[in-house]
Amino acid sequence: MKTPTTENEIDFEDNYPTAGHGKKPHQKIKPYIVLQYLLKYTDENHTATGKEIEYYLKEDCGIYAERRSIYRDIEEINNVAWMLENSTTIQKAEEVLAEDEEDNEKLVVYDKHKKGFYIRQRHFDLDDMRLMAECIYAAKFINQAQAKRLTDVICEFVSEPQAEQIRHDVFLTDRVKTTSKTVLNNISAINAAMSNKQEGENHTPEKISFQYLSYYLKDGKITMQERRKGALYTVSPYRLLINDGNYYLLAFDDRYKKIRTYRIDRMKSVMPTGEPRAGKEAFDTINMETYTTRVFSMFGGKDERITIRFVNSLLDSVIERFGTKEASYRVLDKTHFTVSTHIETSEKFFAWICSFGKRAKIISPPSVVEKFQSFLTDIQERYIPETKEDEK
Fold first, then answer.
1. Could you report the per-residue pLDDT of 137-149, keeping only the tens digit for each?
2. How many domains does the chain have?
3. Sheet holding 336-345, edge to edge
4. Domain residues for 149?
5. 3-state secondary structure 33-78
6. How far apart are CA 71 and CA 65, in angstroms?
7. How far apart are CA 204 and CA 248, in angstroms?
8. Using one digit for the tens of pLDDT, what is the confidence trace for 60-92?
9. Domain contains 17
């Protein structure tokens, strides 16, 4: 942003011989340029004086402007903004803003202390935009290039100084992110397949097909390859959901005849099949409010109601995992409590229990206790030193 260094630096009479004589060019677009200038360079902490706007119009845009005309432009900008926001007439806007001595209704506000104008954000502030940018960078399913592009989109809604602050802050986020470039395209294709309307016409939700990728380690290098030797998966998509920073598709799998979950960033070549989706009955039995809690980051198992004992200091961690709606808590003694809830028991769940060591214990049912004991035994056996006989 160019700014004059002295009061005498602007001299339109010398540079524009027509200044003050006859019609000046480009005056009709001047209010629009003034608005865009204010949107880009000003906010509650950064203002622009009439002199700075005047200088910008001359030096950057080649447009002659008297300072009084800029003030009139700002007045008209406020009138039009209020009219559109309140769905009324320009006459009504003029009446309201003429009585707005505290500048509570104006889009462009004059700061008497800083002696400059700035755009007041009505629908969001810097913290809102920063939070959205941080969520983008925290999402593992969005790769680095996409995160930067989406952050640039967000920054268009704030001033340039605020945008620089957002970009600086969000790049401090350090997460393991996907390297896939097709996630957003996959989401778009899945949403289209699940939609009841497409391009204004009725649409029957349909199945999709795709290849599913997994990591493989070969010759010291990590690559992603198609599962099932590249064979297509065919599923009936029902819901997109986010868990632990990853995007998942909840779908009815035709092969296994059950609801399963798939990582969006591991799906390749997502295509609609044109075949109406199946599995509605299976999907309708799912309680979405507790689904991600039960399946533990999408590692499914048998759904069972279990009771676990924890030391009191773990109450926060347990509530964060199970919540309070579908789980019941009971004081066991002075140092312990129990929680009873439905869990899809799996090795992922057992590993979570192990993370607490002696501070947690599965109480019931006996069948789950036995499974957990087998899980621990299997791990323990892997660390028994091999004998010379075993080595043979």
1. 777 777 778 888 8
2. 4
3. 328-331, 336-345, 302-311, 360-364
4. 126-170
5. HHHHHHHHHCECCECECHHHHHHHHHHHHCCCCCHHHHHHHHHHHH
6. 10
7. 22
8. 998 888 889 999 999 999 999 889 888 999 999
9. yes
